[in-house]
User: Fold these one by one.
Assistant:
Number 1:
Amino acid sequence: MATVSAVETRAQLPRPDAILAQVRRVADWQLANRTNWATMPAARKSVQNPRDWQQATFWIALTELAKRDARYAPPLMELGRAQQWKFGDNPFHADDQLIGQAWIWAARNGAGSEALEPTVAYFDNVLAKRPSGSLEFIPGAPGAGWSKCTDRWCWCDALFMAPPTLLQLARQTGDQRYADFAHAEFKATTDYLYDPVEKLYFRDSRFFDARDAKGRKQFWSRGNGWVMGGIVRMLDAMPRTDPKRAYYEGLFRDMAAKLLTLQKPDGYWSPSLLDTDPGTPPESSGTAFYTYAFAWGIDAGLLDRATYQPAAIRGWDAIVRAVQPDGMLGWVQQV
């Protein structure tokens, strides 16, 4: 009887104020420790760059919290002014474009055209010198994790970093060129990396033939989370009447249906999605993306509440368990 009661309790929808309290707790820890590199001893040195994707992911999430709690707006404005509203240094790499979503938010919320001008200039250069190389991920050196192909979106993470930024910019400026570019490149990446049988994305072309010890394809959890989160943010930025919405909504539903079958009983998704063996470790970053996407999809009317809400609740409960007493989020797979 006690076991049944505990399961029923875990299945209850959390209150909005309880969700917000948890989000504030994690955000407060992150802001307080944003330069405390001792908390992440295995991190790359690039994490110290506020315009790098690793920090930018936090900053754009903070824009969503600032919509609900104005106390989180000043750190964003202070960061933008300190960074002069610039992107990363690479003129084409999607990782250097993610921070633009924070600058566009700032432009809409008091910073004005000063915050937007570097974003416009950056993407005008991309459009003027549009890369057209292969999407095949050929390492730039033996064993290297970089490739010339990253001038385009040749790895699935890029679908979170760049296209929502471009669509938000198109909405802010009224310039459709940015949206047209985003749609064309998104489709090129999807045609190349999406597995229509598994309804999941390979991280990049190096994984097309990769298999685990049991012969299963290898689909990275956080990588597919980047895609799901990216589609959510794209749809949020697109007009309701946009004829291209149907393409993204269909892709979102197909991926959600597959991901629903891959959630483990403990609420987490495995680092390698098809490896649902009980011994796989907890992993919070992919789980957070899917929980976010499921909750958004239910609210947007794209996902059936009765089918997806229990999975979203299990995912949220798993994320909460990963938060340490001081507010630091744990069980995040290393970069």
Note: The chain has two domains: 17-30+45-129, 148-335.
Number 2:
Amino acid sequence: MHAGTMIRSLNVLIPTCARPAALAVTLTSLCAQTYPDFNVIISDQTENGDPLLANEVQAAARLLALHGHQVGTHKHLPRRGIAEQRQFLLEQANSYYVLYLDDDVILEPDLIQRLMQAMGEEQCGFVGSAPIGLSCREEERPGQQSIEFWEGPVRPERVMPDSPAWQRYHLHSAANILHLQRRLDIRPRHQRKYHVAWIGACVLYDAKKLHECGGFRFWQDLPADHCGEEVFVQNRLLERYGGCGIIPSGCYHQELPTTIADRSANAFQLLHERPRDGRIDVVIAVPAGELIDKITILEIKAGKMKDPAKLAHVKDELKQLQQVRDRRLPSSGRLDQL
């Protein structure tokens, strides 16, 4: 199976290891997606055997191809950890957006369409759909069902372990999302976006923004057995571009045992204080008025500048200062008038 050279708006990236049946179920759920413009790339790290040749996987891949979705497969060894596996997949992609899927999820037919819709509306770093564990569908956990909706555009935000925002992750446990979307009567046609600390299993990324934040290249700084790689990446994207979850979810976990048995090395805990992209962050305190003046000057320059190279530099500087403003200055009527 080969992905070919056809460029699509979306590549679905699936890391897998020794799970042919679960992978086949995941691929089958992709066959019924209402969003048409995607291909699939699978990277397998099974050391003994080849689940990509299993009849159930081959059948699902052929059905995807019949529906116009090319499926590319790679046998990627030796195993160097899940972050390296994700980076390898990212390097195979040639699309504007990438959807990382775990190999043990089931998607509602409209889910990719809804993820792409939310991304188109927000142009943020990532949009995710938290997986629901249906074995817990009768288990209510009201203490874990707090949700904070985005009432305006998704904006950059800083979420750290010592902040209340970090506790948002509880919402994604068990079947909390299912109970909440039913109680609030939120339907797919009127989906809502909410604040997250991170999301796993089904996450759509803007590929360019993911690359700009370094992707998963930090894998070389981690032991082969680790976890938390998406927490680290999404934390970077949240701070620079913002990110969100969508409800209702539409993603369901097959609830298989993890293939990462040793989870003692957490990527976020090991790396989150490291300078971004290998650069040293220099922080200089300036008055709010001076920041607004600088932004205004750059906006004027951007409107008048003709040289493409200089304009790109000005726009980049303007974007960075606007992100600082959005993160550090509280919104107010007076500020909006400036």
Note: The CA atoms of residues 326 and 333 lie 14 Å apart.
Number 3:
Amino acid sequence: MKIFKSLVQFIKISKNESSQRIDNFLKKKLKNISKNNIYKILRKGEVRVNKKRVKPKYKIKTQDLIRIPPLKYFHVVKQQLTCESYVHFNVQASILYEDKYLLILNKPSGIAVHKGSGISSGIIEKLRNVYPKNSFLELVHRLDRGTSGILLIAKKRSILCNLHKQLREGKIYKDYLILVHGRCNFKNKTVSAPLKKKLYLNKNLNFRKQKVLIDKNGKLAKTKFNVIEKFQNMTLLKVITETGRMHQIRVHAQHIHHPIVCDDLYGNLKKKETILINKEINRIFLHAFNIRFQHPNTLKNLHITAPLDKILIKYLKKLRNSANLKNLA
């Protein structure tokens, strides 16, 4: 790990960069600078817009000239990986919906939505290569690398801002499917448990990773679990999140003592090893299968569903066959 010091930077805001808060803009531009330091230089007036001090909530405009002061930062040497899933990712085959404002994909498991944490490229980087004429392509939300299912991409900043507003106001409804260990003794269950991020260094790849814990001082998080189907020692659940915290579903599932099948961070590792040895499933059983929201331009209600991949379908079929055989015995 080395310490570097950057030079003074001057950035002129383009049309595609305008209409966003300056703190959010700086977080994207200054990847190696912590959020605390970004807010510190804003508070002290070291960041200037058109030679004037601004508050973090200031929305930058086209042609604004931003001065960023010299900054010290740590550089961690990363082992950059390009996963096989990324190499074989077929954009066209994954499209669920597309127009000139939006792109909705059925993201496969095993591919990151963006680069970082030792990954050299993700879906958004792939899309920018596939759509070189689109000057603006941004993720509306994120999915964990192992999670599959619906992923929204905005093709215009105005669309991104509208969808972010809908997310904040709870007007975008997302449903997930998860398979958990154990037979749930409830039909419906709501979990309200605050979540807090914890950073730790991954010793093998030499970069920081985040894990989320339940903490009374954390951020509000609320998850609804609804039983769809019960098997001998597993349960298929539909999940609705009322907040969008990192790893929320995974941590709340662990909290109610029903960890998600093949979750290597919050799951039952012994049971995962048994499943992997039998070569039944090699990914976390977490899928974003349904989304409902108002189209930002047409104002029509969109309802998109993403089918499960072959691995998950095959595993569910095996569980159902096993249950039928037990009933016949």
Note: The CA atoms of residues 201 and 207 lie 6 Å apart.
Number 4:
Amino acid sequence: MPNNTRSSQSVTMQIVMVVFPGFLLQDAAGPLQVFSMADQEAEKSGRGPRYRLRTVSTSGGLITSGCGLAVQTEVLPRPASLKSATLFVAGGDGTAIAMQDKRLIRWLQASAHHLARCGSICTGAFVLAQAGLLDGRCAVTHWQDAPLFQRLFPQVTMLDDAIYVRDGHFYTSAGVTTGIDLSLALVEADHDRALSLRVAKRMVVPFRRAGGQRQFSAALLAQGDDDQALQARLAQWLLPRLKQAISVADMAQAMSMSARTLHRHLITATGQSPARFLMRLRLERACQLMEAGKTPLKQLVRQTGFGSEYNLRRSLQQQLGVSPGDYLSRFGASRQRA
């Protein structure tokens, strides 16, 4: 049996997961498991805070997820009872219906100012945005849903390449398993890096996933159908040549097709133009070098073909919402050894 002798001395922090019919099970289960294991690891060393995990819904009772597995939930608690709590809204196929749940939306609006942290997993960002909680803020959601999000909520700045985004006390994470990344970061903030790392090891997930903040890899997406097979060939041709000046015509010639045909195939496979695809590969390579911490910035710029530190800075800011210095301080090798 766990030793609870220090529980009364620990600070209890509510972790509230909001679900709805058709929610994505991983969106809810992944983050909750992180906090549950953090409790176990903290208890081993006699430390707090302790987490109180709650799963809530508009109706309460059994709520069926998108995969058919149902979970038991509490009815939405009084907003005032959520003082200093951390709240997440899960995503999933039921998000569109949840956005029309007026009771849920009003409850989120009333609860937000009581919360220490208010967040979303995957397409749960749509629900927060529907409640107006992300107006004027930066956010992220699943990369496939980012264009729709931008059309529906132009008042929110979408950082579609981020794993998770913090803006004030609002947190949004990208697709599905990125809720685990966000939760590990919050455990680190509540405890320390060592405890969060132990949780990551127990869950057999990266403490800092390879690629840092990038939500998906241009190279890894190059798997699957014919259009994606073309993407794989193009990535294979580009990667050894990133330091060179490369035009769309060069890429098309290497793939033995016209520039127009290359553009059409890449848009179909990835939603990216050839120029953007090249930029993404350069940015991924730059981030890998920054994470390794062995390449001076001027040399890094030359190796990745950005041409200048200004171009690298602008690309990082536009795609990830951070400067090179911010990225290095968060994901650089010296940070990981700390």
Note: The CA atoms of residues 234 and 255 lie 7 Å apart.
